[in-house]
Amino acid sequence: LDLVSANDQQRKHDKVVSFIAPHDFSLEYDSLLYEKIHGTGQWFLESTKFKNWVRGEGSVLWCPGMPGAGKSTLCAIAIEHMEDVTDGDANTAILFTFCDYRKNSIQNRLNLLASLWRQLLRRRCLASWECDELENKYEGPGRRRRPSADEMLEMLHREMTRYSKIYILVDGLDELESGVRHDLIRSHANSTHSLNILVTARTRGRETQHFDAAPHLELKASDDDLHKYVAHRLHAADTQTLRKHIARDRTLTRDIQDNIVQKAQGMFLLARLHIGAIVGKHTIKAVRKALQTLPEGRNAVSETYDETISRIESDDEFDDNDLVPAPLLISSCAGLVTLEAQTTNVRFVHYTAQEYFETTRSRLFPMADSEIAKISLTYLALDRHALDPTLHSTEEFNARVVRTPFLGYAATFWGQHALTYWSALVGVATGTIDRVPRSWSELEELVDNFFDRHNQICCAKLSNLHLAARSGIVEAVQIIIDKLDNKTLVDIRDCEGRTALGNAASRGHVEVIECLVQAGANLDTCDSFGMTPLHLAAEAGLDTVI
Q: Where on the phi/psi map is residue 281: left (φ > 0), alpha (ψ -120 to 50), or beta?
């Protein structure tokens, strides 16, 4: 009975904590530890400034570093070290935050403070009365809301009183939006508790004046760490050809390590990309030539990205007719992307890679949206992907998702890619305009065929017109309207009683709305919840539609 009661209490605790603090950073931390090379980062842990920070009371350590220097990995190494040395000490807590500019929508002051509170509560289970108090305050009838940022700060400070010493490590402070940076720093600066704070960032800003008097320790990859990293990569699965060269030339390993370490300029990122530049070379001579021409200097990162793209585009050995193992796909990208072990998601190796592609996207991939839209529609049109309306259970639906992993993306985003492409066609003259007519006709044919064969997704009453209106592509809507034998079908309802006009209105697709109205769509038709298209637009705050 005691065990059952404890399990019930743990579930109650987990439910409350997950509602109040839905985001934490354990996944980022675990991924960084998984990817780190054994034995690296010791210089950081053994530095005088880091040791003084650990021993100090209310001490701050500011750790700036250039992009790609390995700041996040060093921060993870520091967290792991602190957890090891304080293991069993019930009076000390280690808290951390990994900031990511790609997650600014969720990394606001409330969520960041809540994540720290959640980390503290991994060390104890909330008492039953505490759970009841939080549930009544935030999850009671008509009250379902999360705490405000100020309430969350108060809850965090209250939990902190249980500890005599607290370490907080914040990685990538500069990746937060300016206002969030200011709020987070102010929250910690005004704390009545003795907090030891370590911060990593690329640059300093006005919000970081609190750290002006703090000791500085620049983070970069040491030569010793870079040698260990290169040695590790030379034994990786995707360097088989390179290993054969090394077996034939005993001096090649040393030459590779020395050249890459010298030209990496204290950046793991450059070392990784430089290895990608030599792994596919077919001869020892080609490897040595590549080593001599590796970019270096101020523009080394952008020049390396340029050369990597050129190398990928000129590669004629990759067979895209078959599905290939993930390691081969990653290797074919020449170090630009990495596979997260914990999630199996593919992401850019570094935010500078993403910035590079965002800057050069229109030049490198001018027809990207067109190609993705066509691929998505082709995938959706395959017979084996026809969605069976008899799939009612969650288990059956989940099984379908596992069998067809691209189906969700294709069904959700094909319209967004096609909309971007069609908009470009009608308003912009580009250097690739001579390729447009054929691509446009192919895409239009795919849209036509897809909607002919797939007139239901979530229920039997969801028509192809609903799907087109939801996508926002007025050309696709017009194709379907022109094929309607009975024009009254323009007001056909889906399983929620909503018309295609309601779909377009709820998403703000003005041109689609105009097209449907001209085709005779009823403006006053209510869905199952009594909502007209006007109501739906108002609910979504779409003034232009109203």
A: beta
